[in-house]
Specification:
Elements (H helix, E strand, L loop, with lengths): L4 E6 L6 E5 H6 L3 E3 L6 E3 L5 E4 H91 L1 H4 L6 H11 L12 E10 L6 E10 L5 E2 L2 E7 L5 E7 L1 H4 L9 E2 L4 E9 L7 E7 L4
Antiparallel strand pairs: 1-2, 1-5, 3-4, 6-7, 7-12, 8-11, 9-10, 9-13
InterPro entries: DUF3426, Znf/thioredoxin_put
Keywords: Membrane, Transmembrane, Transmembrane helix
Protein name: Zinc finger/thioredoxin putative domain-containing protein
Length: 277
């Protein structure tokens, strides 16, 4: 499509230039009225023509120029508004600093609280542990005699007693003491006395205290007739006199003297009892 022609004309009176289209000139026979001085003149003389698109481009450039000219004013407005922006930024920074400070205080308070809780728990655990150790020690101390008879526990108790300067009771196992070659006969020097010969052996793997010896007589119906108990002091003699422990796996020959229990005492039996303190 061919663009319409636009003419530029100048008023001969006031010299104002303005644009008119070809259609406007044809309608008025070439006569136009100046918009400034209202002078009517023939626009057909001394006019320049140019395409409408060029005019539009010039107008666009003019508008762009006007917009660029108005930028300083906008910039001035922005500069004028900058103090408000700076004030808002300062206020925001203050708020952020305040929030950061509060967060730091909260974190510090939480750490302090956790630290107090940890110390409290540690103290509680220490008290409980101390109580358990105390109770355990008391149990071991008051039951050390019985516990020391356990071969698995005794070495530990010996170590503790070595530190605390205490003494464990000896290991006693009466069932490991056996007798043999038991013989009852009339005393060679006194007919009212009898002599009992026997051999005893500690078959345990460890020494143990000398036991008490109990000699019992019964009749034909196995009813008790007489009995006698001998302490270690009464039946030990020679090198064994005064010793406290019976050696392991060593035969010990004994000879005991006692009054004749009478003609009804036809059976006899030798047993061992644990020596009491």
């Amino acid at each position: 499509m061919t663009p319409s022609r636009i003419r530029t004309t100048r008023c001969p009176k006031c010299h104002t230039s303005f644009r008119v289209t070809q259609a406007q000139l044809q309608t008025a026979g070439g006569s136009v009225r100046c918009g400034s001085c209202l002078n009517i003149f023939n626009a057909g003389k001394d006019v320049d023509s140019e395409p409408e698109s060029i005019i539009e481009n010039k107008q666009t450039k003019a508008l762009t120029s006007d917009a660029e000219t108005s930028k300083p004013e906008q910039s001035q407005d922005e500069v004028t508004a900058s103090p408000t922006t700076g004030q808002s930024s300062s206020t925001l920074n203050s708020l952020l600093k305040k929030v950061d400070k509060e967060q730091v205080e909260i974190r510090h308070e939480r750490r302090t609280k956790r630290s107090k809780i940890s110390k409290k728990r540690l103290l509680q655990y220490s008290v409980v542990l101390s109580a358990c150790l105390t109770l355990g020690f008391q149990y071991l101390w008051f039951n050390k005699d019985e516990l020391s008879l356990n071969p698995a526990i005794r070495p530990y108790l010996q170590s503790v007693c070595k530190t605390l300067n205490c003494t464990l009771p000896p290991v006693v196992n009466i069932s490991e003491i056996q007798s043999s070659q038991l013989l009852v006969r009339i005393h060679p020097d006194n007919e009212q006395m009898m002599v009992v010969d026997a051999v005893i052996v500690n078959q345990a793997s460890h020494p143990q205290p000398w036991p008490k010896l109990s000699l019992a007589f019964t009749d034909l119906q196995d009813q008790p007739v007489a009995s006698r108990t001998f302490s270690p002091k009464e039946y030990l003699g020679g090198e064994l006199a005064g010793t406290k422990e019976m050696p392991a796996n060593q035969a010990i020959r004994l000879s005991l003297e006692l009054l004749d229990p009478g003609p009804d005492a036809v059976n006899y039996r030798l047993t061992f009892k644990r020596k009491t303190r």
